[in-house]
Amino acid sequence: MRLVFSSTKVERQCTDLKTAMKFLGGNTNLAISLLSRINALLSAETIKDIIVLPSFRFHNLHHKNGRNLEGLFAIDVKSVREPWRLIIQPLKEDDTPYENSRIDEISQLVKVVRIVEVSKHYE
What we know:
Layout lengths: L1 E4 L2 H8 L1 H7 L4 H16 L4 H4 L7 E2 L2 E2 L2 E2 L4 E4 L8 E7 L11 H4 L5 E8 L4
Parallel strand pairs: 1-7
Antiparallel strand pairs: 2-5, 3-4, 5-6, 6-7
């Protein structure tokens, strides 16, 4: 898959171990896990390859604190016990979002993903 990052800051957090460690409070294991998730996304042919991995706990997002999260999905950075999530958005080949966010209908088509943010989404 091809990855598109929402900003250079997010790209550095996801691709540079030192930056990831600093962002994640010095947690080396969590930073390595984040970079591993990014490598898994890069290695996948489509988003379906990620959805079928139970350890990633791929799930859709809705609304939170007035923020519309339709069309966005999350995967665990390390495990369900850790609060950190990688927030992603499936994109078409021309880098535009899908209008239909029903992932089961588009999963075999999605070959581009926008990394929106790495966050403690549920806090």
